[in-house]
Amino acid sequence: ASNLIVALAGAFLAFGICKQLNIDYAERYGFLAFCLIFSIYFFQRMVDHSGFSEDERNVWGNRTWLAIGLSTVLLFLGFVVGLQMVQYSVIQITLIVVFSLICGWYVIPLFGSKLREIAGLKLVLIAATWTYTCLVFPYLNVFKEFTTDLMYFALLLIFYISAVVLPFDIRDKSIDLVQQSTVPQVIGVRVTKLIGTILLLIFSIGMYVLKIVEPTNILFASSILIQIALLNFTTEKRPFYYFLSIDFCIGLLGLSFLF
Hints:
Helix content: over 70%
Number of strands: 0
Order of helices and strands: HHHHHHHHHHH
Radius of gyration: 18 Å
Strand content: under 5%
């Protein structure tokens, strides 16, 4: 269930960003994001043998094969849709290859370890791959080159994704490998919450300054305020559905770009 919700959140985020930037076929980019996020997150958990949480067993039951089959189909569909949509350029193809390798190495251990097990890389990789999938890939498909606007927007989105990942790092602080050196493991939970709050505020102010979002956009402001609250009240013992609400707010933010 968590994979499904986070994939839907990514789909709404990509869809909303494309609509905001007047990029055609926004629904296809949203579908592509959904396929990739769901399948990659699911296969990562299967490779780790982490299986499903108790709450998720209520959704899938003993039908793990159903989730595996669905993930495989979605990964294939994402591959097909991506091939149909991509506008071939040197920079786009280079980035596709780079991020494909990153996603593969994130899931499958190469040279003895997975990328996310290397100290300090987990948060950076998640933020970068989400930003590429939801913003950079569709933008380059249309405008063909990096622009100042793209770089500012991408940097702000990296800040945002980093901030919303932090509650999950706090939750997993005791179960993540020590060598992963996640932010809460290195600087503690209290400082992590402070940094996450600052990142969300920078993201919000930056979106207003760049005039990507209007100050009157209540849905945008509400999603940020809720995420700040959820971040600051996060503990390792919060229930499964508490963290689903964080994913839900990502989708809410995506929808705010429609207004």
